[in-house]
Amino acid sequence: MTRSGPLRFSLLTLFPELLRPWAQEALIGKAAARGLIAADVVDLRAFAENKHRKVDDTPYGGGAGMVIRVDVAERALASLDAPDEVILLTPAGQPFSQAMAEELSTRAHLAVLCGRYEGFDARVESLVTREVSIGDFVMMGGEAAAACLLEAVARLVPGVIGDEESHRQDSFSSGLLDYPEFTRPMTWREQSVPEVLMRGDHARIAAWRRAEALARTLARRPDLLPGTGLTPQDSAALLALGVTSAQLEAWGAPPPPAPKRPKKRRADS
User: Fold this and answer.
1) Which terminal residue of the chain has fewer beta carbons within 10 Å of its beta carbon, N or C?
2) Which entry of 71, 118, 131, 151 is annotated as an active-site residue?
3) Does 118 participate in catalysis according to the annotation?
4) What is the pTM of this model?
5) Which helix (H) or strand (E) holds 40?
6) Alpha-carbon gap, residue 14 to 114, rounded angstroms
7) Region 7-154: CATH code
8) Which of 91, 107, 151, 254 is catalytic?
9) Which UniProt keywords apply (predicted)?
10) What CA–CA distances, in Å, run from 266 to 170, 261, 263, 269?
11) Catalytic residue among 17, 84, 170, 249
12) In Å, how far are 139, 157, 170, 253 from 9, measured between CA atoms?
């Protein structure tokens, strides 16, 4: 879709002061000031409709903890200007990924529900377009997860980060982990910057970075390799790193380039 204005985020939470700094500082704040994004923090307690601003109640069937009411969530969402995605942050959701961040960055308005206590009444699920988890662990609330989603998605909006090419080279954008980066000092505690980066040969640098990304991914996240669109040159590099031909075949990788045959010398006439 083509977005005519800023990408809007509506972050719905019981603790707005936890999220306001994320929406107002650093590159997110600068992007908002430039009209590239708009990040609004919505206090769920404003929709409680009782003098004590109570938003939760005890669970039916008994059990520990409190549950956030569905009618409170419904009123809060109804106050928004037609979000085209309503995201519920929950450990039971679809794992958040770079591919999802890229998809969400094309939307016009994202509403994000941050739970607390024992979470939302299960009927809230009927009000959302997707449920998202940032990992297989449990936190005390969804605010930190919302901050992760905000940063991951907002930085993909054109103009938010200075170098448009940089996010295309990030970990996971290419399917691989990122290659190692270096800056001054050239030598630190007997560790030196790789010589290939000092020579200005951009083709060799690009080849080195690709090989390093492959090596890092193989060592740390080999599960990523089957879906990365490996090239014949990648296959050759992985074979040199100890990967077997059977593994490459299982990953759907193409065969490495055929070795060049030496040119036959012509006999002197």
Assistant:
1) C
2) 118
3) yes
4) 0.86
5) strand 37-43
6) 8
7) 3.40.1280.10
8) 91
9) Cytoplasm, Methyltransferase, S-adenosyl-L-methionine, Transferase, tRNA processing
10) 50, 15, 9, 9
11) 170
12) 22, 12, 23, 39
